[in-house]
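Sequence decides. Consider this:

===
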Amino acid sequence: MSETIDMTEPEVAVADPRVLLVDDHDLFRTGLRNLLADQGVDVVGEAQTGAEALGLVRELAPDVVVMDLNMPGMNGVEATRQINVLAPLTRVLVLTISDEDADVLDAILAGASGYLLKDSSIQELLQGIRSAAVGEALISPHIASKVLQRIRATSTSPEIADTIRSELSDREIQVLKLIANGTDNAQIAAELHISPKTVKNHISNILMKLQIDNRIQAAVYAVRSGIV
């Protein structure tokens, strides 16, 4: 498996995603709002707790929630899980200080569409927001690599491999393996000699058949199966 995993796609572009910020630190939230506003991002609201975030998701229907993990009361993982059920078209991008494997994995399995650290650049954050808004995923590459390597070493599940082989076509399995190795859509298309549109169709079918939400979860699933 490659050393980094980049779930972004070069063709991602979305106009003015509506963003909700969730963080219990007022100064950080204000600074982040100002930075995003300077870049033309439409920040529609702010919340300082997970419970408050749920209420604002119901009220405002944002495209993307930028979510901290460590907050009093309902933490970011549980808030992400509930948002995923409450508003499946609203994507959650985790922005946190924690690079602990357990936090990353919990957030991904809760349905997060991306995971970035708070020392990320504003351009990385913008890319994460835009990717999440169109249903793609972005995760800091060194975090993805570390977490997937740990999963590969400690939790291989042969029954998952059986599910993959029974549910997916041979071509879809090829695409899934490439996703787990950090290959973007353009690279997958070149590798398999198919069009980028066909790659997107294969990925949609993979997510539907395996009942998972995004590419990050697909990578975790593939690594757990032991097929990569």
